[in-house]
Automatic annotation (TrEMBL):
<keyword id="KW-0732">Signal</keyword>
<feature type="domain" description="Fe/B12 periplasmic-binding">
    <location>
        <begin position="45"/>
        <end position="298"/>
    </location>
</feature>
<dbReference type="InterPro" id="IPR002491">
    <property type="entry name" value="ABC_transptr_periplasmic_BD"/>
</dbReference>
<feature type="signal peptide">
    <location>
        <begin position="1"/>
        <end position="25"/>
    </location>
</feature>
<dbReference type="InterPro" id="IPR054828">
    <property type="entry name" value="Vit_B12_bind_prot"/>
</dbReference>
<protein>
    <submittedName>
        <fullName>Vitamin B12-binding protein</fullName>
    </submittedName>
</protein>
<dbReference type="Pfam" id="PF01497">
    <property type="entry name" value="Peripla_BP_2"/>
</dbReference>
<dbReference type="InterPro" id="IPR050902">
    <property type="entry name" value="ABC_Transporter_SBP"/>
</dbReference>
Length: 306
């Protein structure tokens, strides 16, 4: 073999090796909008644009790689120390640029379309996080772990979460149904429809969301509509609602209608909204609390029937 032939063979082999290494380093996942997100290497400087995203990133093992987050990113406690880059109403684009992210995880429903277009102009990879069902949380953890290069941590968190949800589903999903009005806001009176993950939680616990069929995702309802639906249980969400001796006027208001089934049966429950409204691993804790509340409603039903 001539020197030239050996050189050509070496060059080809080196090129193939480099191509293989490059292909191995490339990370490609599909986000929750169906778009393909490709990184040439695991992300090292990540920005979260939603509180639930912050929780997902930390659970997936990416806490040390986060360089910024929006307001209300308060869990885990370390997230409170992250530089703020705005909120769901307005992003601080200059701050985002200054932080030099190599991945931005976005919540489409929380960030204005105009601002999202500006983000695209930065040519930084965007991963849209839009989990709609309980099982999507585990899938999100796995995908984020791939993008972060922390798959071992992310996969373990996903497995633990799936185990928690499976346990609750086996214990409660087939229990006698309880009709539920889930009150997410009181002025105006607002709820969540069947497309929201909270409705999945209600079903998981053997409940039935009385306003599952409404539109949009967070519909406004009237007091008259709630009275007509006559739910057996009313559950309201609020920060710190599960703390002892916490009084919630939004629940007390319903006592003005003693004939309402939830009032007559004393099934007015409160739950910490951060545990159940955010599509992140802690929703398993919120589900546990809701399932226990609905089981209490079943016990009171049984006692009244005796």
């Amino acid at each position: 073999m001539t020197r030239l032939a050996r050189f050509v063979r070496f060059t080809i082999a080196a090129s193939l090796c480099a191509t293989a290494l490059h292909a191995h380093a490339t990370i490609t996942v599909t986000d929750d909008t169906g778009a393909t997100v490709t990184l040439q290497a695991p992300a090292q400087h990540v920005i979260s644009l939603a509180p639930h995203v912050t929780e997902l990133l930390y659970a997936a093992g990416g806490g040390a790689k986060m360089v910024g987050a929006v307001s209300y990113s308060d869990y885990p406690p370390a997230a409170k120390q992250l530089p703020r880059v705005g909120d769901n109403k307005a992003l601080d684009l200059e701050r985002i640029i200054a932080l030099k992210p190599d991945l931005i995880v976005v919540w489409r429903h929380g960030n204005a379309q105009r601002q999202l277009e500006r983000l695209r102009e930065l040519h930084v990879p965007l991963f849209f996080s839009e989990p709609h069902h309980l099982d999507d949380v585990a899938v999100s953890l796995t995908k984020l772990g791939q993008l972060l290069g922390t798959s071992s941590t992310a996969d373990a968190a996903a497995a633990a979460y799936r185990q928690d949800i499976a346990r609750l589903r086996a214990q409660y999903a087939s229990r006698p149904p309880v009709s539920v009005f889930y009150q997410v806001w009181d002025r105006p009176l607002m709820t969540l429809n069947g497309e929201h993950m909270v409705s999945d939680v209600i079903t998981l616990c053997g409940g039935r969301n009385v306003f599952a069929g409404l539109q949009p995702l967070v519909p406004t309802v009237s007091t008259e509509a709630v009275l007509a639906a006559n739910p057996e249980a009313i559950v309201t969400s609020a920060p710190g609602a599960t703390q002892p001796d916490t009084r919630l006027p939004q629940l007390d208001t319903w006592r003005a209608w003693p004939a309402l089934s939830a009032v007559a049966k004393q099934n007015l429950f409160a739950i910490d909204g951060d545990l159940i409204n955010r599509p992140a691993p802690r929703i398993a804790q919120g589900a546990q609390r809701l399932c226990e509340d609905l089981e209490t409603a079943r016990s009171r039903r049984k006692q009244r029937a005796q």
